[in-house]
Amino acid sequence: MTIQQPPVKLKGVGDSLWITMDASLPAETLKQELCKPFERLRHLAVNARVVLDPGESQADDALIEDLGAFLQQRFQVGRVSGPPKAKITPAADGQKAADSGRNAQNAWLHHSDDTLVIAGRVRSGQKVEARKHLVILGDLNPGAEAIAGGDIIILGSLLGTAAAGQPANENAIVLGLDLRPTQIQIAGYVAAGTSSSSGKKPEFASLKDNQIVMADYLKDNIFKRLAWPEIR
């Protein structure tokens, strides 16, 4: 039994929409197939970055440009491009398979996203916002506010207000070397006046059974459960 692959597949990669397509099909057929997932996305596709990946099939720049112009006009997406060009280096025949696997495993090292890293103390009355993850190399003072679409990591004392996973990322965490926040929010859940255990040590807050809970990061690191590094 032969399983027929769909001509167009869509998935989210970082802050982009990655489209894998069969470039051997006529352009008009591909446009019809592209409409199916983008009609479901509707407003979520507006201004989104799109990568058109022909996979193992061949696609010239003219086809990418044609489909990109179609998506921009029809669904108001942002920049449209082909996949990044892979660098080809000579390798002995016996090493090609191993090198290919190693490169795939280390692909996460080359991922770029909207993480914001700042250094210094965030003072009372100041607010720092990040589209995705937020890292502060310093303290978040009482009266200061940190907001992120993903994780918030404070390499210092977290004494202010932290809102991670905004608006609806329930997998986000808030981590601090000294976690004594005025208020913590993860997605739509809020915990006020959470107190740290005695002694300064790395702790993190996460969602469990629809409640924000705190744990010792060194003892209960949730990322130890992952079989392989993942992009957050």
Automatic annotation (TrEMBL):
The keyword Cell cycle applies. It comes from the Bacteria. Keywords: Cell cycle, Cell division, Septation. Residues 118-214 form the Septum formation inhibitor MinC C-terminal domain. Residues 82-102 are annotated as: Disordered. InterPro entries: CAP/MinC_C (IPR016098), MinC (IPR013033), MinC_C_sf (IPR036145), Septum_form_inhib_MinC_C (IPR005526). Pfam families: MinC_C. One of its GO terms (biological process) is cell morphogenesis. The keyword Manganese does not apply. HAMAP family: MinC. Cell division inhibitor that blocks the formation of polar Z ring septums. Rapidly oscillates between the poles of the cell to destabilize FtsZ filaments that have formed before they mature into polar Z rings. Prevents FtsZ polymerization. Belongs to the MinC family. Interacts with MinD and FtsZ. This is Probable septum site-determining protein MinC. It comes from Desulfosalsimonas propionicica. The gene is minC.
